């Protein structure tokens, strides 16, 4: 059975269910649980649910320490960029301890970080920064694109014994979707084939999965069958599913909201070029944001970002076909 | 039983641990000369801080925990970790405490409450604070000690952590080992309190917690001061900042050099950088190990012969640790990709 929920509520449902299931799960961060009628505070009490000062280094660092001491913290960071003031804790502390101690300690924690708020938030609150984390040994990176995955990946992230950066897209916040009732866990490291097709593989991440599906629908009208793959987690990256698809289609377009250089798209393209070169019948195309800071003004913001038309255009290029006239 | 709880047996234990730390560090230092190339990277010694370490750890109960900096050899010795496994770790061997994954800067012994170290200045302070949050939730009266240096108190991690710990009344004791130098920068060159002639413990005032300065060369004084702070923490009264004045008797670390250049420990920065041999000689005269020995012999806790016997067995123990470390095999190279994920 399933029920309909907005993406953001699906995340909350997962946290709530995991807190009910495992009393070691903690939930803390800025601007949560500041009144007694907060539902998490009411359900789980002030030991496990706490508002913190605006101190990201301490919030994330304390999550590391609490995790080392046997708990499973979920840190509410709101905006992904706020992690940047505490970068050492994320990429050089949380992820290192299990390795450096030969497994004596584990650091199970979840950093809940919203990203990609390209709705006029301008330069410093709009970043799509998951690519910075996907190559960091010991970290896992989840990027849910649907309400169901928002729930399932959060549950998996909380149950995982490693630090997980959980990126939820701000523009998906109120997108409704069918969410399975009760326990729903989506394994980390397992891509989803969102649409099957034999002509071209489109790998799209997060918010752009829907755009890729819309592009695929448009392409279907022109007789082009696009397969759309949603990696769901960037670390671990399900390279096998992508390679298998490219083996079938011979063509790859990678769609990523982040800037191009050093992006997840570039990594995925490199993996396919390296491991699946013999399958490729055309050069790989990347559809990413242009390499600039996100501007405030809407026409400029739109210009920088990937969209359905750019995806369709890239598919046509790899297929060597002429533009579709709508 | 004396008022502070330190009976003869406990005092002798403290003296023995101080000797063990000193001898271990001497053997690490000598390894650079006697077995060139065996120790890689950067090694930081605890000689000079023995009294502070042992006095602090003597306050702990079996379920208490600690996190420290990369200058981490002293604590596990006092906790009872096998020095053989520690030396093997510093030599990068398979039988090392962390199997050669961590090395000198990351000794960890979770079974003894030593949860780990951060190699980045100040960044372990929030880890200890988080462990104290865990202890508070668990509600079993555990206390966490957070060890760090004076330099770390210039990091945001220090200030953010002390604010939260005081706000939440966490069972943590912040032990700042103030050795007057951040590598080659003197405290009065980088710390507003030091420059104003105030102790660094005044930083506690900004976070509405007690701040106290103690002679870190006196293990009994450290024990009493940290013990009081541990008592407050255990009683749910929140954190304390203890500034323990120590003097490291070696340089910050071995020289930093590319492969091919033999590594060694230079002289202390007071001499090499500031040309102040007098300061260093004064520190040697105040060396906590002979100072505590003299105290125990003078007050009749130990005879000179007993002290010498302890020293002899410690020498033997650490010699065996070196031999064990040298004989331990290297890990298999392919093991380098294990333990990335739990």
Principal-axes geometry of chain B comes out as globular
In percent, how much strand structure appears in the residues of chain A?
A: 15-25%
Give the name of the CATH superfamily of the largest domain in chain A.
Thiamin diphosphate (ThDP)-binding fold, Pyr/PP domains
Tally of distinct domains of chain B: 1
Q: What integer is the average pLDDT of chain A?
A: 97
The CATH class assignment of the largest domain in chain A is Alpha Beta
Q: Got a strand count of chain B?
A: 8
| Gyration radius of chain A, in Å | 20 Å
Largest interchain contact:
A-B, 43 and 40 residues
In the sheet with the most strands of chain B, the strands line up as 2-1-3-4-8-7
The CATH class designation of chain B is Alpha Beta
Keywords summarizing the entry:
heterodimer; A: 326 residues; alpha/beta; Rossmann fold; 14 strands; B: 342 residues; six-stranded parallel β-sheet; two-stranded antiparallel ribbon
Walk me through the structure:
The complex is a heterodimer of chains A (326) and B (342). Chain A has 326 residues and is α/β, with parallel strands linked by helices. Chain A folds into 2 domains: 2-180, Rossmann fold (3-Layer(aba) Sandwich); 192-319, Rossmann fold. Chain A is 36% helix and 22% strand. Chain A has 11 helices and 14 strands. Chain A has helices at residues 7-21, 39-48, 56-68, 87-91, 97-100, 147-159, 208-221, 239-249, 264-275, 298-304, 308-319, and strands spanning 2-6, 25-29, 49-51, 72-79, 109-115, 140-142, 163-169, 176-180, 192-195, 200-204, 226-230, 233-235, 252-259, 285-289. In chain A, the strands form 3 sheets. Chain A has a 7-stranded mixed β-sheet with strand order 3-2-4-5-7-6-12, with helices on both faces. In chain A, strand 2 (25-29), helix 2 and strand 3 (49-51) form a beta-alpha-beta unit. In chain A, helix 1 runs parallel beside helix 6 (147-159) and helix 8 crosses helix 9 (264-275). The longest helix of chain A has 15 residues, at 7-21. Chain A is globular. Chain A starts with a strand and ends in a 7-residue tail after the last helix. The mean pLDDT of chain A is 97. Chain B is α/β, with parallel strands linked by helices and 342 residues long. Chain B has one domain (8-337): Rossmann fold. In chain B, 44% of the residues lie in helices and 11% in strands. Chain B is built from 13 helices and 8 strands. Chain B has helices spanning 8-34, 50-57, 74-79, 83-90, 124-138, 156-168, 187-190, 192-195, 219-234, 269-272, 277-285, 288-298, 304-327, and strands spanning 65-68, 114-117, 144-149, 172-178, 181-182, 185-186, 211-215, 240-245. Chain B has a 6-stranded parallel β-sheet with strand order 2-1-3-4-8-7, sandwiched between helices. Chain B has a two-stranded antiparallel sheet with strand order 5-6. In chain B, helix 1 (8-34) crosses helix 13 (304-327) and helix 5 (124-138) packs parallel to helix 6. Chain A binds chain B through residues 26, 47-48, 50, 52-53, 55, 57-58, 60-71, 73, 88-89, 92-93, 97-108, 137-138, 140, 161-162, and chain B through 65, 67, 98-99, 101-102, 106, 108-110, 115-116, 118, 120, 123, 125-137, 156-157, 160-161, 163-164, 167-168, 339-342.
């Amino acid at each position: 059975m399933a029920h309909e929920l907005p993406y953001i509520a699906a995340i909350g449902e997962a946290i709530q269910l995991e807190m009910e299931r495992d009393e070691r799960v903690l939930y803390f961060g800025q601007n949560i649980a500041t009144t007694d009628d907060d539902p998490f505070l009411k359900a789980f009490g002030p030991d496990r649910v706490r508002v913190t000062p605006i101190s990201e280094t301490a919030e994330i660092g304390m999550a590391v320490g609490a995790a080392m001491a046997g708990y499973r913290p979920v840190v509410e960071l709101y905006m992904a960029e706020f992690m940047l003031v505490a970068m050492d804790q994320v990429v050089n502390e949380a992820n290192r301890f299990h390795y450096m101690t030969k497994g004596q300690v584990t650091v199970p924690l979840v950093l809940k970080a919203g990203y990609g708020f390209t709705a006029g938030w301008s330069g410093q609150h709009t970043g799509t920064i998951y690519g910075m984390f996907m190559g960091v040994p010991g970290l896992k990176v989840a990027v849910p694109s649907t309400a169901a995955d928002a729930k399932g990946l959060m549950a998996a992230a909380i149950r995982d014994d490693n630090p997980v950066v959980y990126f939820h897209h701000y523009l998906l916040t109120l997108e409704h979707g069918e969410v399975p009732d009760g326990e729903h866990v989506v394994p980390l490291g397992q891509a989803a084939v969102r649409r099957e097709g034999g002509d071209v593989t489109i790998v799209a991440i997060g918010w752009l999965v829907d755009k890729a599906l819309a592009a695929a629908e448009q392409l279907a009208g022109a007789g082009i069958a696009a397969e759309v793959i949603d990696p769901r987690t960037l670390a671990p990256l399900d390279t096998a599913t992508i390679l298998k698809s490219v083996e079938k289609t011979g063509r790859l377009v990678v769609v990523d909201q982040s800037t191009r250089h050093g992006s997840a798209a570039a990594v995925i393209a490199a993996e396919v070029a390296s491991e699946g070169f013999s399958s490729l019948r055309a050069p790989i195309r990347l559809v990413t944001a242009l390499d600039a800071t996100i501007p405030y003004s809407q026409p400029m913001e739109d210009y920088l970002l990937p969209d359905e038309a750019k995806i369709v255009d890239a598919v046509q290029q790899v297929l060597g076909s002429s533009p579709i006239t709508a | 039983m004396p008022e502070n709880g330190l009976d003869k047996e406990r005092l002798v234990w403290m003296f023995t641990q101080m000797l063990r730390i000193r001898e271990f560090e001497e053997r690490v230092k000598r390894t650079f000369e006697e077995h060139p190339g065996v120790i890689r990277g950067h090694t930081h010694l605890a000689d000079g801080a023995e009294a502070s370490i042992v006095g602090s750890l003597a306050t702990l109960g079996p379920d208490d925990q600690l996190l420290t900096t990369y200058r981490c050899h002293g604590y596990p010795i006092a906790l009872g970790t096998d020095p053989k496994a520690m030396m093997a770790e510093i030599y990068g061997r398979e039988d090392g405490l962390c199997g050669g994954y961590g090395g000198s800067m990351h000794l960890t012994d979770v079974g003894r409450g030593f949860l780990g170290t951060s190699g980045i200045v100040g960044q372990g302070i929030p880890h200890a604070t988080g462990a104290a949050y865990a202890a508070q939730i668990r509600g079993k009266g555990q206390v966490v000690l957070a060890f760090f240096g004076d330099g770390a108190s210039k990091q945001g991690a220090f200030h953010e952590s002390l604010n939260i710990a005081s706000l939440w009344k966490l069972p943590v004791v912040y032990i700042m080992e103030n050795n007057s130098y951040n590598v080659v920068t003197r405290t009065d060159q980088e710390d507003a309190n030091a420059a104003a002639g105030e102790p660094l413990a005044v930083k506690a005032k900004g976070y509405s917690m007690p701040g106290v300065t103690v002679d870190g060369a006196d293990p009994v004084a450290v024990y009493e001061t940290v013990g009081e702070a541990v008592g407050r923490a255990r009683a749910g009264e929140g954190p304390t900042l203890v500034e323990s004045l120590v003097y490291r008797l070696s340089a910050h670390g071995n020289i930093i050099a590319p492969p091919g250049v033999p590594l060694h420990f230079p002289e202390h920065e007071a001499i090499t950088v500031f040309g102040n041999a007098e300061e260093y000689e004064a520190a040697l005269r105040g060396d906590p190990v002979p100072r505590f020995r003299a105290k125990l012999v003078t007050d009749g806790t130990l005879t000179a012969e007993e002290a010498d016997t302890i020293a002899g067995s410690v020498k033997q123990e650490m010699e065996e640790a070196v031999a064990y470390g040298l004989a331990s095999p290297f890990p298999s190279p392919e093991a380098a990709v294990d333990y990335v994920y739990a």
